[in-house]
């Protein structure tokens, strides 16, 4: 067998693994295949980038995503109560910056640099980066459902009594990809979910 044939066999095996993996958490090569062949993560950083920054890119069993430079900082100046059914844009101050300062005991909304397209047989869970967690900054994201696509809106809470910084275009959270035993009957796209195809930072919708 020539080296060229061997390489083709390896590529074919990788494609099969990516497209038809057994249920469970996806490994780096499976995530890479889905990103490069099905556009699951765009833009996609194939290796961990960590020199002088909070790390981002492909990891062993997940993907560390970056936050953009679009921020919406929560303020209570114009509102006395937070109502998820009647949420006001006036609750936020918009900023476009490389470094966002979150007020004490407050939070900020931003979005991922990456645009995600989730396959119909994959569910994605998000966890915060330990670098930020050890500073009292907590990232909260609900699961990315099968069939959903868009920029992920990220909520970062500052649990400390001091102002805290977060850095745009650096790692903020890690996504873990779980392949189901079969494709779901009804995906997020099939039921026309209200956050389908969202771009930019997206506020609550009813």
TrEMBL record:
Domain of life assignment: Bacteria
Active site: 155
A GO term, aspect molecular function: nucleotide binding
Catalytic activity: dCTP + H2O + H(+) = dUTP + NH4(+)
Protein's UniProt keywords contain Membrane: no
Short name of one Pfam family: DCD
Subunit structure: Homotrimer.
Job description of the protein: Catalyzes the deamination of dCTP to dUTP.
Record family assignment: Belongs to the dCTP deaminase family.
UniProt xrefs under NCBIfam families: dCTP_deam
HAMAP family: dCTP_deaminase
Record's protein name: dCTP deaminase
């Amino acid at each position: 067998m020539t080296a060229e044939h061997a390489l083709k066999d390896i590529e074919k095996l990788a494609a099969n693994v990516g497209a038809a993996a057994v249920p469970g958490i996806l490994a780096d090569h499976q995530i890479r295949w889905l990103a490069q062949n099905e556009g699951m993560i765009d833009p996609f950083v194939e290796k961990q980038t960590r020199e002088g920054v909070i790390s981002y890119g492909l990891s062993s069993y997940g993907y560390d995503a970056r936050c953009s430079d679009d921020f919406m900082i929560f303020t209570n100046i114009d509102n006395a109560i937070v109502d998820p059914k009647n949420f006001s844009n006036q609750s936020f101050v918009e900023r476009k910056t490389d470094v966002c300062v979150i007020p004490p005991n407050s939070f900020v909304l931003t979005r991922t640099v990456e645009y995600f397209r989730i396959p119909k047989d994959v569910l994605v869970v998000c966890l915060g980066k330990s670098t930020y967690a050890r500073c009292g900054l907590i990232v909260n994201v609900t699961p990315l459902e099968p069939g959903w696509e868009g920029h992920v809106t990220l909520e970062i809470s500052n649990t400390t009594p001091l102002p805290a910084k977060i850095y745009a275009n650096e790692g903020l959270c890690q996504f873990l990809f779980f392949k189901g035993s079969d494709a779901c009957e009804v995906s997020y796209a099939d039921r026309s979910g209200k956050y389908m195809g969202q771009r930019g930072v997206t506020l609550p919708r009813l």
